[in-house]
Amino acid sequence: MDKTKLVSGIFFQLTPKKEAFEGRSGKWWFALLILVGLALAFIAGLILVAVGSNSGMGLQVVTGTFIIGFLVLGGRAGSRYVVEQGVVTKKRAFAWFIGFCLITTIAVSVASFVFLPASAFDLWFVLVTGGFTLGVMVIVLYDFYPVLRERGNPGLAVTAGILLVLSIVYMTFIAYWIVPHDPFTLDVGRPLAPPSSSLPFGTTSLGQDLFSRTIAGGAIMLQVAVVSVIVCFFIGVPAGLGAAYRGGMVDRVVSLLMDSIFAFPGLVLAIAIAAMLGPGIINMAISIAVVYVPSYYRVIRSQVLSIKELPYVEAAVVMGARDWEILFRYVLPNALPSAVVILSINFADAILTAAGLTFVGLGFPIDVADWGYDLTAGWGVLVIGKWWLMTFPGIMIVLLALGFTLAGEGLSEILTPKLRE
Amino acid sequence: MTNALRIQDLTVEYKTRRGVARAVDRVQLSLEENRTLGLAGESGCGKSTLGRAIMRLVPHPGQVAGGNIYINIDDDIPCKKGDIPKGEVDITGLNEEQMRVLRGKEIAYIFQDPMTSLNPMLTIGNHFIQMIQAHNPEIEKEEALDRGKEVLEGLGILPERVTDYPHQFSGGMRQRVMIGLGMVLRPRLLISDEPTTSLDVIVEAQILEQMAELKKTFNLTMILITHNLGVLAQTADDIAIMYCGRIVELASTENLFEAPQHPYAQALLLSVPDVTKPNKKLVWIPGAPPDLVDPIPGCMFNPRCPMAMDICKTQVPPLIESETGGLVACHLYGGK
Fold first, then answer.
1. Which of A149, A212, B216, B309 would give a disulfide with A179, using CB separation of 3.0 to 4.6 Å?
2. Which value does ipTM take for this structure?
3. Does residue A381 fall inside a structural domain?
4. What is the pTM of this model?
5. Total domains present in chain A
């Protein structure tokens, strides 16, 4: 075993050591085979797609992001190394790491500015975001996986969920550089052509390449889901916390407001607000957020109402804890796991509501690649046996929702010390 | 001897829908330093409310309706909203921030139920860090943790266990952690509200012993609220018997057990089961305490008192000095 432990995390776990492999069950080997196989298949598929890309630069983009990803990993490993050597404190090393990331970003931007033609200028953004997404994925494996593994199944679920979501994010970032056809070009093939070797997922009713649209179509879903859930979370949780902790008039007014939102059927309200605000990612996210704020509020409020009467809160008062300490160290952490569950369910809900908004025509025009659009369009042609149009975007939505759900469910279990065994 | 605690005419009322219930009725009490006072009485007699009133933590809808509570403070205590001068301080007149500074630092309080008195989301070490930093923000985490470890070690808990969460401890250990948390800032006054009620007798004995040791090392003044007279016999220096929000008898432990003066105290002591005599019938006090919302005139105990006189039904007996040197509130002794 290397004394410095420069490379640890999952890489350390996989270091071939004789004892590590002895006494492993058949199940373990099977799981390893699936994992390694899936990872290899993913990379191979990515390269294959990239080689035949529409832009002609797919391979370079993928390589570039991988290089940035491994630079980030190297930076993290280095900062960990200096901490372990006792050269600097943890905080200082983290600051160095952030600085390293910033320098990498600037270097990539400058390099793109100098070497790339003006037509491919936005490539630097793709390289940086894609590269850092990969970097985060590797860090999740490198830094968090050994910690999360201690927690047993929930830890594995969180890791799997985060990786699933991040890989979809990565795919979305580099999508336009690796797709075999422009996702908007009409009449790439015969309209509604079934999957074939040249068009692996078939075409849409306008003859667009569904494979390209599936790769590129996550952007809107992700943005809408992330923005709406963040807005929901940061309005619903503080409102519930404040109202329940303060009680009295504040509680009544906020509860009345939330209940009146709750009284509307969710999708109808979202449609009404979206129709009022007009199309656009932020507007769509806001209209979805408004629908889901009350569920956070309700859950947090009821949790806080019961938690603030618990003996440990009174014990904190007796110990002379300040109000904000009681709120943020005693009440909030105990209420948060239920909010995280709502969060993970909400991601899936938001994605489906976004698809619903697109369905009623409040989504995006035809020249935007969107899973929701293809899904609803495919629903219309399913009856005539064109199954592929609905299936492939549907699978992606399910995978994304699954990733969020796994991450959320696992997180809520990890956040509760009692369930951590 | 200075008084660590002096309570004057303290009245605590609960405003219920049916009317005002007086849970603590004009209580007079003074407690000398380094003594342990036992507060005993049946359920609902106001002993816990009295303890909470000293912490200014009377639960809603209760409030202190009158009276003063003075505690003795050795040094000036700095506070953002008005420093607290040393000497006798009336805590009913302090603002919330001043009260917060006093809680934990000068007065510690230990609850009945150790199972739920610790935050399940925090490790034991974090509890100590929060406790110490709430009062001394300048103390570093490491130092706070060391102080916590020291206290825990004194209570017989391995210092390594500071990284454990509350659910990894047994009930007795949690109560010891609670006591440790109460003690870590070296308060002057410790109020424990039935600290051992939910524990088995062996753990109870251990904890009482440790509390007695702590009392010696830290020069604590203690108030022990319990309905268990056996616990008081073992630990208390003086015992106050409460009935319907009033103190009916206050005497040293020895005198109270040897020669209880008030009929209620006598009945209470008689009702303690005696295991040394075979087939002895359990003695109990007939009747139930009167409704506090609609109190009866005179001595509250008169309907249940075997020695009740006419005067008992009309006049509240004052707390006067008894023959044994304590205080008693009964017309039987006031007649001279």
1. A212
2. 0.84
3. yes
4. 0.77
5. 2
